Amino acid sequence: KSLVEHGYNAIAPAYLAWYVPRPSTTRLRYLHKLLTLLTPGERVLELGCGAGVPCTQALINHGLNVTGVDISSAQIALAREHVPQATLVHADMMSLSFEPGTFDAIVAFYSFFHLPQEEQEMMVGKISRWLKKGGRLLFNSITDEGDQILEDWLGAKMFWSGLGVEGNINILKKNGLKVVEDEVAVDVVEQEEETFHWVLALKQD
């Protein structure tokens, strides 16, 4: 996780310049779907808010009460410029503590898979406790199992880890989260294919 933190600190402006003009149509589709289920004023936690665009900004524009968290201080600094209305926290998501039933929704775009495998189920357990009954989790993860270290990802060394599609589903079910919708979707970014597992889940009794 130190590698992830230092990597995003090093490339934060370059990453912002790269991905904002190249939005994932799948992410925007799922975000829009979630927004139709949420009422202005409800509380949302975004794990891995990055620079705050486009997702944190869209949540704020919908009138939601947003708490954004990122492990990178450079990303949080950019988010403060883009979404000063949000409550922004520089932290490892695993270190967070909230009262049970605090949030109506929790989102994690391109962030969950930066946790080591052994922490991913622990994180889902925390998320389940933090969600209200009927609250929703929206996240994406990689489809492969195991750890990956990318030596040069936009100019920085980066770490990813995955449980696989079945593993993602299993940890949700074990923690009281019902899978409402999931798909393995491919986005084309600059003629390169990006494949992620997208999941929308519901907190049960």
From TrEMBL:
GO terms for biological process: lipid metabolic process; methylation. CDD domains: AdoMet_MTases (cd02440). One of its GO terms (molecular function) is methyltransferase activity. Gene3D superfamilies: Vaccinia Virus protein VP39. Keywords: Lipid metabolism, Methyltransferase, S-adenosyl-L-methionine, Transferase. Coiled coil: none annotated. It holds the Pfam family Methyltransf_25. InterPro entries: CFA/CMAS, Methyltransf_25, SAM-dependent_MTases_sf. SUPFAM superfamilies: S-adenosyl-L-methionine-dependent methyltransferases (SSF53335). Residues 44-135 form the Methyltransferase domain. This is Methyltransferase domain-containing protein.
